[in-house]
Amino acid sequence: MSQYLFNAAIKGFIEGFTEFLPISSTGHLVLFRQFFPLTSDPARVQELDNVFDIIIQLPAILAIVILYWKRLWGSASTVFEHQESRRFWMNVIAAFLPAAVFGFAFKDHLDLLMRPDIVAAALVIGGIVLLLIERIVKAEFVERAEQVTFRQSLSIGFFQCLSMIPGTSRSGATIVGGRVLGLNRTAAAEFSFFLALPTMLGAFTLKALKEYPRIQWASDGPVLLVGSVASFLTAWVVVALFIRFLKQNSLSIFGWYRIILGALILFFLRFGNLQPGL
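^ that's the sequence the OP posted. Answer follows.
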């Protein structure tokens, strides 16, 4: 059992580390899940992986709520009094809607894309896009997430739909969208965090309701708990450091990371033992 708890901690760390960085948490979990099984029962390996990947997203969302509690509560508690607060939450909802519509429409087909070859290709393409954005985008009209307009929010929401392709990265797609639309790096990242709240909570709820009957709490409970704690603590630290990093640095390092990782995966798919299907 201790081995599976260790594996759960590793995968929880991967989720917390990658969820809010533009490097794709789903892509990393898809790639590493075969190396860190969570059960000795071959018939339940994939089933438990699917449940685990869903459950450990919730603690990562909680980390965002705690880190930005003052700003979130400040705007939520004054939504009926201040126009800026109402505009902020309306914009978050507007940005959430495209992914909600497309996600519901294609929810039964997205699992077919959970393949290392698709993840690798998306990582490389996304990395190239990040490098180009950092080189091309110069105009920065928006310095705070609360200043994003309705049109910008809705457009960022359509960018988020690209993250339905594993390896694209929800954070990466929304940050790129924000940068293209005139947000500076910090504002783009923070709006991406705030947009994650309804997006990830909605996806979590739908998937959790579907997978809940399959959870065997006696054996799965400790694994899910360890993974959740690791995800929460890691996300809390990573998000705080990421915002501090963006105030003085570009996103190029994440672009190069994506390209190198994607290229390595493609190499091992071609010449190694890594299988293109899961």
